[in-house]
Amino acid sequence: MHKDAKPNIFQLATKELTQDSFFAWLLQWANDIYADFNPGLNETAQDFVRLLIDQDNKYRIIKVDAGRQWKNVDVWAEINDEYFICIEDKTNTGEHSDQLQRYKELVAERFKGKNHTLKFIYLKTGNESSTSLKLIHGKGYRVVDRKSVLQILNKREINNEIFNDFKFYLTQIETLTYSCKTISSINVNLKTAEGFYIKLQELIPEWTDWKYVSNKTGGFLGFWYHWVKGKNFDLYIQIENIIGKKIQVSIKIGNWNPKVETLNEILTVLQLGAGKYGLQILKPDKYRLGKTSTLAVVKNIFIADGDGNINLNQLLIHLQNLQSLLDEYVSGESVNLFENYS
To answer: Looking at CB atoms within 10 Å, which of 77, 122, 217, 342 has the fewest?
Structure first.
């Protein structure tokens, strides 16, 4: 901890329930009756409400009721007897068990026959793949992200330690997420690693996805894209970051009949063609047969300058070359084309 920093409850109580409490608390401060207690906090809370209901500053907020855990809804608020806000509050997890649809049905039933405008919010203060967030949009929820929240929290100086501690906590996450410059930084800090994947999603034009994968060996932060279909299997590219240990690019195989012979045959042909694309493809330390398996590891794909900063342009070129190699392999022309590059 920096010598000028002080203990922050939100750095200790990182569960979503803690964050639920903060947002319910902030929403309660939007009630007009609290304007004299702390005018700045009341105004900021009202700005937050207007963000959620998509209204501008002309909309006057008089009455606010807010709380937590109604029918398992994380946070809820009723505004001026006109709006009802249903908030699914997420830090580092994503949607599960069709919870968003269930909450929509519960709220719709609760306000059946009433004139309330219903607002469904997916409030995300952690990081999440843009691919999964698009699915959230498709379910009728508006995504409100950390950046949008911080824009509200930073509008004015507030004299309240709970408020300022939470703002500082979110600001730290934002800073770590967008400090993904060096290989060492993305391999040491999970938030910085997530920020690196967010950047890759912006730069790679085709479908991509990423998330944290738990497994028996401790888990990793994975990034997947470029599925190509062979006759009896699929190949795709995976970037796997085992935080604190290593980050590497792999060629994965799936939708197949697991056999070591298959892995060796494909690897041999890919290695013949790798030189054409300036790639070095190696057999993994050990083949592990499963529903999906690592076929090969691509070496020397992360290039850094003298300060350790990742050369993103060079990385994208390497990845594009890897895509071309896989495309050429499944085209059926691979053996003849690659023989001259062995």
So the answer is: 217
| pLDDT given at position 342 | 41
User: In angstroms, rounded to a whole number, what is the distance separating the alpha carbons of residues 114 and 284?
Assistant: 62
| pLDDT tens-place string over residues 285-334 | 999 999 999 999 999 899 888 888 999 999 999 999 999 999 999 987 44
Tell me the pairing of strands 208-213 and 73-79. Answer: unpaired
With a CB cutoff of 8 Å and minimum separation 6, the contacts of 13 are none
- Which residue ranges in the chain fall short of pLDDT 70? 1-5, 97, 333-342
> Any idea which residue has 């947002």 for tokens?
23
Per residue in 210-220, pLDDT (tens digit) is 999 988 778 99
pLDDT, position 300: 87
SS (H, E, C) the chain: CCCCCCCCHHHHCCCHHHHHHHHHHHHHCCCHHHCCCCHHHHHHHHHHHHHHHCCCCCCCCCCEEEEEEECCEEEEEEECCCEEEEEEEECCCCCCCCHHHHHHHHHHHHCCCCCCEEEEEEEECCCCCHHHHHHHHHCCCEEEEHHHHHHHHCCCCCCCHHHHHHHHHHHHHHHHHCCCCEHHHHHHCHHHHHHHHHHHHHHCCCCEEEEEECCCCCCEEEEEEEEEECCCCEEEEEEEEECCCEEEEEEEEECCCCCHHHHHHHHHHHHHHHHHHCCEEECCCCCCCCCEEEEEEEECCCCECCCCEECHHHHHHHHHHHHHHHHHHHHHHHHHHHHHHC
pLDDT at 9: 82
Q: Which of 186-214 are b and which e, b meaning 16 or more Cβ less than 10 Å from the residue's Cβ?
A: bbebbbbbbbbbbbbbeebeeebebbbee
User: The whole model's pTM is what?
Assistant: 0.90
Instruction: Classify burial at 276, counting beta carbons within 10 Å of its beta carbon; exposed 0-12, middle 13-18, buried 19 or more.
Output: middle
What are the sequence ranges of the domains in the chain? 9-177, 201-341
In this prediction, residue 7 carries a pLDDT of 86
Token reading at 212: 């944290």
